[in-house]
């Protein structure tokens, strides 16, 4: 699936608009409901961008990693990094209500990166995004598994829950994804 993206603010060619076609890789096809509101997050909006995807849970010992994930996002967002949080109750540690999940993310930890409504991330019922992540690397074995995806939509590294967002190996993978060609 190809998406045509108009790039405004660049020098105009021949007095018209400059256009660039970003291919939406199979990993990023589709959309997911946002954690807040009734909008959907079009995953193709991440095409051509370095991306960290993490499955989250509100009542997990690793939940404080939201703070580090937000710091990671703030540190690298000017260089194009996107972070996508995907809450899940697959490991029985997510809130029963999406409103409580939103409070944990947005109020308790000040998250500003994209968050979806809770999703299934493991097994046969996993959403296509996580089936694709598992096919390219490994399925999450617990909450706060982190996947670093380059600008071409390839998983270049994945990290367990034990890896904190400020870990030098994770930062190195993020910088590699940022430096990757579109």
From TrEMBL:
Keywords: Oxidoreductase, Peroxidase, Signal. Residues 1-21 form the signal peptide. This is Redoxin domain-containing protein. Belongs to the glutathione peroxidase family. It comes from Geopseudomonas aromaticivorans. Residues 21-179 form the Thioredoxin domain. The keyword S-adenosyl-L-methionine does not apply. It holds the Pfam family GSHPx.
